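User: Um, what's this?
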Amino acid sequence: MKRAALLFTVLLVMCLVIGCTAKGRFHDTALPDPKQFNAHFGDMDRTGDGRVTWEEFKAYFPQAEPKVFATIDLNKDGAIDHGEWHAFKEAHGLRHS
């Protein structure tokens, strides 16, 4: 019984360590302070199609550089979808606004 409890504890600790380190960084590039890019997705998506293009992003964030947009566009399809936007915000501790 003690051996099973010890094995369970070791496995639990290993899972926690792997889970905490597997996320890594959201991006490999240095970006400006992410807090200046905190916005509600619907406010950026002017066409209401569920995707924010570079033009929509730039209109909402005039100070933005293309590398910021490219970093958030995880699947590199040329637009930021709702999931990508919230993954970016969550990775930087930004709250839903």
